[in-house]
Automatic annotation (TrEMBL):
This is ADP-dependent glucokinase-like isoform X3. One of its GO terms (biological process) is glycolytic process. The gene is LOC113066584. Keywords: Glycolysis, Kinase, Magnesium, Metal-binding, Transferase. One of its GO terms (molecular function) is ADP-specific glucokinase activity. Gene3D superfamilies: 3.40.1190.20. The keyword Metal-binding applies.
Length: 313
């Protein structure tokens, strides 16, 4: 069923299909006595091979022939459910495999919801995060990262409505400073985070590594609207603006007061050598589709992103 342009390494094929079952529902839909407060989905999966990342080495080996311009990784959340003994060992092996990707090929990691703080902390501090160039995540994953790694606002149990821009900015900066390459002396490769929540998106990048951020963050917001509504283009009669029109660059002082300019809706600010690009999202009033929105947002943002070539050593 895959497009013929998608090449699947023959070594990764298996006899028996595994499966993901996605229950998607609209706002207000009822099941028994429960009524959905908003459109969402519930996903069940029987996917042992992805849970064990059993084809990762096959994938990395195939890159020699495929010669990609970009590598995108996802599915780490599925390994969490396989048990600590497996993920402790497999994460180490995954890091070795990922490290075999040629240096000039950027690697993007797309996160998903997790519940084991030790597992998330291992991804953040010791294993995966420092060896990828870019990360995509939503507000739940961002807060869980802060809680797992002892970052700013880790005392929050959850977001109260639309996540505060200043708090989000603080956590993004912390990740890039403590676990990325905001410090030029750092050996970490992480220089880009694409954050997406329902009402707005932020692209945070370490200066000197990425370009075209305005177009990239705008493209992600546009596809969020059109895909959620099931349309090719954004229909302004079917969307609503929920983003804060004024906000602060940080939750604590010193901080900058910022506002969305409708004529140039990407708001830009800097903290040290990290640049932040925020755009509101035109939120679909009656979403037909919520599955895969995060993937679409990150993918669209990557298409429009420009990676600054590394100087020859």
């Amino acid at each position: 069923m895959l497009d013929e342009q998608i090449v699947v390494p023959p070594e990764s094929l298996q006899e028996t299909d595994e499966f993901h079952l996605i229950l998607e529902y609209k706002s207000g839909e009822q099941w028994g006595s429960a009524r959905a407060p908003q459109a969402n989905r519930f996903i069940l999966s029987h996917d042992v091979s992805n849970g064990e990342m059993s084809t990762l080495e096959t994938f990395v080996a195939s890159l020699e022939d495929f010669q990609p311009d970009l590598v995108v990784l996802s599915g780490l959340h599925m390994m969490e459910g396989m048990g600590r003994d497996l993920w402790e060992e497999r994460l180490k092996e995954a890091v070795v495999a990922i490290s075999d990707v040629r240096n000039e090929v950027p690697i993007h990691l797309e996160l998903a919801s997790m519940t084991d703080r030790d597992y998330m902390n291992r991804i953040l501090q010791e294993q995966v995060m420092p060896i990828v160039n870019s990360v995509g995540l939503n507000e739940q994953e961002l807060l869980f990262l802060a809680q797992s790694g002892g970052g700013p606002h880790a005392d929050l149990t959850s977001w109260d409505g639309i996540p505060d821009v200043g708090r989000v900015s603080d956590i993004l900066l912390w990740i890039l400073e403590q676990h990325g390459r905001a410090d030029p002396q750092s050996e970490a490769d992480l220089t880009r985070i694409h954050f997406h929540t329902l009402a707005y998106h932020i692209l945070a990048t370490v200066d000197g590594h990425w370009g075209n951020q305005e177009a990239a963050v705008s493209a992600g917001a546009r596809v969020a609207s059109s895909q959620a509504c099931g349309l090719q283009d954004v229909d302004i009669t079917k969307v609503i603006l929920k983003a804060p029109l004024t906000f602060h660059s940080s939750f604590s002082e010193p901080r900058e007061s910022l506002a969305v300019d409708p004529s140039r809706p990407v708001t830009v600010w800097s903290r040290g050598n990290v640049s932040f690009h925020l755009t509101p999202v035109l939120v679909c009033k009656h979403p037909l589709r919520t599955v895969g929105l995060g993937d679409a947002i990150s993918a669209e943002g990557l298409v429009f992103s420009e990676l600054t070539p590394r100087p020859e050593l």
